[in-house]
Amino acid sequence: MAEGDDLFPGFEPLWIEGPADRWFGRAGGPRDAPPLLLLHGFPQNHAMWHRLAPALAETHRVIALDLKGYGWSAAPDSRGGENAYAKRRLGAEIVAVMERLGHVRFALAGHDRGARVGYRLALDEPGRIERLAILDIVPTDVQWTRIEAKPGANPHWPFQARPAPEPEEAIRRDPDGYFEGLLRGWSAGRDLAAFDARALTLYRQAWNVPERIHAMCEDYRAGGADGPDRAADRDDLAAGRTLAMPVLVLASESYLDHDKPETALAAWHRTFAPQAQGARIASGHFMAEEAPEPTLRALQSFLAA
After folding, report:
1. How far is CA 268 from CA 30, 125, 140, 222, 263, in A?
2. SS3 for the chain, per residue?
3. How confident is the model at residue 1 (pLDDT cuts 50, 70, 90)?
4. Catalytic residue of the set 66, 112, 229, 236
5. 112 is catalytic
6. pLDDT higher than 80, residue 83
């Protein structure tokens, strides 16, 4: 049994050649069932979905991908985030990957960075996405507006967006200390108790690789204050573009919606998803691992509607 296989019983590992790079994922569920793409967040990989994916695969053909630079997918070199890690480019490449798996239209659930790729893909190519579930983020432009209004909030955003190699060198001195500190700090219990030891092993394997540390910083540079992700948001906001498909916004009570000027759902209502439905999950940021039961129920209800 390959490492991580036991987290996804009945799933098959996938190596997919994309337009430019190789992607890793896992697929499970009936091949003729409606397709559902799961995209993970930072600083994790596809393993974050292990408590939800088997149940979701009872009704859907579930594909859980590692984003570029994370897990076992390719981690191409980049400068300033624009060459490989802009969410518009990642979205277009994921469309090509899904086509190679035989799926032209699909539902998408994304957490954290995966949700940023997901909503950008859905804005750029609305005909591809049947339903969109956004887990624990606000739009990138809203996020930066909050950071600019309250310097010191979410310090990893400006830190990892700083020019190379400053953040990379700092993180490489103690990758486990840095990334595990984020997992603890964003969890409701302020510890690692919610994370399966097997998933943590996969996370640690990836974030100790220098090329992947660089890739994660490039991800944040693409989403920086002056990066292409925020610019794409601002262009779409100015044009009045909104998400055309049904949208679900899940927000954590003790992280995203804690002590904020507006709820995540309100932020999406006034920007890209005026008709979105939403729910608050009693958890920290990592709701798929900290509170799998209510997170699963919310996703199942949304996907079945």
Report:
1. 33, 18, 11, 21, 9
2. CCCCHHHCCCCEEEEEECCCCEEEEEEECCCCCCEEEEECCCCCCHHHHCCCHHHHCCCCEEEEECCCCCCCCCCCCCCCCCCCCCHHHHHHHHHHHHHHCCCCCEEEEEECHHHHHHHHHHHHCHHHEEEEEEECCCCHHHHHHHHHHCCCCCCHHHHHCCCCCHHHHHHHCCHHHHHHHHHHHHCCCCCCCCCCHHHHHHHHHHHCCHHHHHHHHHHHHHCCCCCHHHHHHHHHHHHCCCCCCCEEEEEECCCCCCCCCCCHHHHHHCCCCCCCEEEEECCCCCHHHHCHHHHHHHHHHHHHC
3. low
4. 112
5. yes
6. no
Active site residue 103: no
Q: Return the amino acid letter for 23.
A: W
Q: Is the pTM of this model over 0.85?
A: yes
d(CA 254, CA 225): 25
Please check whether the domain covering 5-304 is classified as CATH 3.40.50.1820.
yes
Amino acid letter, 78: S
